[in-house]
Write a structure and sequence with these properties.
Blueprint (H helix, E strand, L loop, with lengths): L1 E13 L2 E13 L2 E7 L9 E2 L4 E5 L1 E7 L14 H14 L4 H17 L2 E7 L4 H14 L2 E5 L1 E2 L15 H17 L7 E3 L2 E2 L7 H14 L4 E4 L3 H11 L3 H7 L8 E4 L5 H10 L2 E4 L1 H7 L6 H6 L3 E4 L11 H17 L7 H4 L8 H16 L14 E5 L12 H11 L5 E6 L2 E5 L3
Parallel strand pairs: 1-4, 1-5, 6-7, 7-8, 8-10, 9-11, 12-13, 13-14, 14-15
Antiparallel strand pairs: 1-2, 2-3, 5-16, 16-17, 17-18
Helix pairs in contact: 2-3, 3-4, 4-5, 11-13, 11-14, 13-14
C-alpha cells in the first residue's frame, strides 16, 4: 500500500531540538516513509492534504500501561501503593479470568488510546493466558502497534492467593506459552510482539526471576518490569537482596538491551550507569509518580548519564490515558524538582539545580525517546522509519492564529492539545482513528 500526505510537521529529533518542516509531502510505501520533499517540488496531487492549521507529529509511544486496570482509571488514589494494589488493583485485574470480560475491556481501551494519539503501547496483561492473547489480538484488529506481556507473579507474600501463579514453574510455562500464542496470531503487518513481564520483585520469587531471565536470553524478546518505583518497593528490594532493583534485576539476567524499567524515582547515579551500560531504558510516568512515586524522577540527570528515557501513562496508576498530558506533566514535575516544594527551606536548600526540562524534551520523551528505549524505527517522521503519525488541529489550541511562531505553537500543542484536537491517527501507514481522509 502506498500513499502521500501533504502537511506541516512538528517533531523533536533530539531532546533539545524542535524541528518545523512547513508544507511538505511525505511518501509512504508498505508502512515505511520513503521520502519527504517540499510540496512545491512534488509532482502530482497528494492523497491526503491536512488543513492549514493542522500539523502532523510522530505517534506517541506509551511505554507503561496496565491493561487490566483500564476499568479503574481515575479512581482509588487515596492510599499508598502496596495498599492500592491489594484493595483495588488485584481484584480488578483478577476479573480478567473471564476472557469475554477481558476482551470487552480491551476493545474499549485500545481504540480510546489510539484516539488519544498513542500509536504504540507497551502493555502488562493479567496473569491469565487467554486474556493476554486476546489483548494482543485486539491490538492487531484495531491497528495499534504493541508489545504485550503476560504478567508473571508468584510470591506468596507479594500477591493475593486468588491472583497469582501457583508456582514458579507454572508461571514460566505460561509465560512461554504466551510468547508462543502471541507470535502465532494472524498479524500481517507485524504490529504486535510479546514481552517478558515479571510484575516486580516483591511479586516474584527468585526462582521465577531467574527463569524469566533465562527465557529472555533464550528467546531474545524484550523484557519489562517496575524498578525502584517508590520508598516501599525500593526499600523492600534492598532488604531482600541487599542491593537496589537495578542490580538485583541485572543479577537475574533481566537488565538487557531495551528492557523497559517503569518509574525509577529512587534510582541512583550508580543505577543509571548500570542501566545505560546494559542498553535498558526508563518509562517515566510523571502523573502516576505524583500519587505513588514518593519522589520526582530526575529526567535531565538520567539523560545526561546516557540512560534512554520515554514516557508512560501507567494506566491506572496515572489518571489520564493521554501521553500528551504526560508530556506536559513531565515539564511540571521537573520544575518542582528544580525549585523544591518545602517553603520552610530557603530557595538554595529546597530544590535540585539543573533539573527542569522544557516542552521540546518532554515531546521527545513521548516520541523518539520511547522509540529509542524499544530500539524501534519509530518516533520521527523521516525516511526509513515507519509511518506512525498523528494529525492535530490547532484551531482551539492556538487561540489567535497567526500571532505566534512555530515554536510557540508547538509549545501550546504540548501543553494544551488532547483527544478533542486529534483529527487522524495512522499506524504503519494505515489510518486507524479519526475522520475520513
Amino acid at each position: 500500500m502506498t500513499f502521500t500526505i501533504r502537511a506541516t510537521v512538528f517533531q523533536t529529533p533530539t531532546p533539545t531540538r524542535f524541528e518545523h518542516r512547513e508544507d511538505v509531502v511525505i511518501s509512504v510505501a508498505d508502512g515505511a516513509i520513503v521520502e519527504i520533499v517540499d510540496a512545491a517540488t512534488f509532482a502530482g496531487t497528494p492523497d491526503v492534504t491536512l488543513p492549514d492549521n493542522t500539523v502532523l507529529v510522530p505517534g506517541c509511544i506509551d511505554l507503561h500501561i496496565h491493561a487490566p486496570q483500564w476499568p479503574q482509571l481515575g479512581t482509588g488514589y487515596d492510599v499508598p501503593l502496596d495498599q492500592w494494589l491489594f484493595e483495588y488493583t488485584f481484584p480488578t485485574e483478577a476479573k480478567c479470568a473471564d476472557t469475554e470480560y477481558a476482551r470487552a475491556v480491551w476493545d474499549d481501551m485500545v481504540p480510546a488510546l489510539l484516539a488519544n494519539g498513542t500509536t504504540t503501547a507497551v502493555y502488562y496483561g493479567s496473569i491469565h493466558l487467554d486474556a493476554t492473547t486476546e489483548l494482543a489480538r485486539s491490538c492487531i484488529e484495531h491497528g495499534q502497534r504493541a508489545w504485550v506481556g503476560r504478567t508473571a507473579m508468584d510470591h506468596p507474600d507479594g500477591t493475593p492467593e486468588y491472583y497469582r501463579d501457583t508456582s514458579a514453574a507454572q508461571a514460566l510455562a505460561n509465560s512461554r506459552a504466551s510468547i508462543d500464542e502471541i507470535t502465532a496470531l494472524d498479524d500481517p503487518r507485524g504490529l504486535v510482539a510479546p514481552i517478558i513481564t515479571p510484575r516486580f520483585i516483591p511479586a516474584c520469587t527468585d526462582e521465577l526471576l531467574t527463569g524469566l531471565g533465562e527465557l529472555a536470553a533464550e528467546t531474545g524478546h524484550l523484557t519489562q518490569t517496575h524498578c525502584s518505583e517508590n520508598d516501599w518497593e525500593h526499600g523492600y528490594v534492598i532488604d531482600r537482596h541487599g542491593v537496589s532493583d537495578t542490580h538485583a534485576l541485572d543479577g537475574f539476567g533481566l537488565l538487557r538491551e531495551s528492557t523497559v524499567l517503569a518509574h525509577g524515582c529512587m534510582l541512583s547515579d550508580d543505577d543509571f550507569t548500570t542501566i545505560a551500560s546494559r542498553g535498558a531504558g526508563v518509562a517515566h510516568c510523571p502523573l502516576s509518580n505524583v500519587y505513588f512515586g514518593d519522589a520526582v524522577f530526575p529526567t535531565r540527570r538520567a539523560l545526561s548519564t546516557g540512560v534512554k528515557v520515554g514516557l508512560g501513562t501507567d494506566i491506572a496508576g496515572g489518571p489520564s490515558p493521554s501521553l500528551l498530558a504526560q508530556a506536559a506533566r513531565a515539564v511540571d514535575v521537573s520544575r518542582h524538582l528544580e525549585n523544591g516544594v518545602d517553603q520552610s527551606l530557603t530557595a538554595d536548600e529546597r530544590g535540585v539545580d539543573d533539573s527542569r526540562i522544557d516542552a521540546t524534551t518532554a515531546f521527545y520523551l513521548a516520541t523518539l525517546g520511547g522509540a529509542d528505549v524499544l530500539g524501534a524505527p519509530l518516533g520521527l517522521l523521516e525516511a526509513g522509519r515507519r509511518f506512525d503519525a498523528v494529525a492535530i488541529s490547532l484551531d482551539d489550541v492556538d487561540n489567535v492564529p497567526g500571532n505566534d511562531t512555530a515554536e510557540r505553537r508547538f509549545e501550546k500543542l504540548v501543553r494544551l492539545a488532547g483527544r478533542r484536537d486529534i483529527t487522524h491517527v495512522w499506524v504503519d501507514g494505515v489510518q486507524v482513528s479519526g475522520g475520513s481522509s
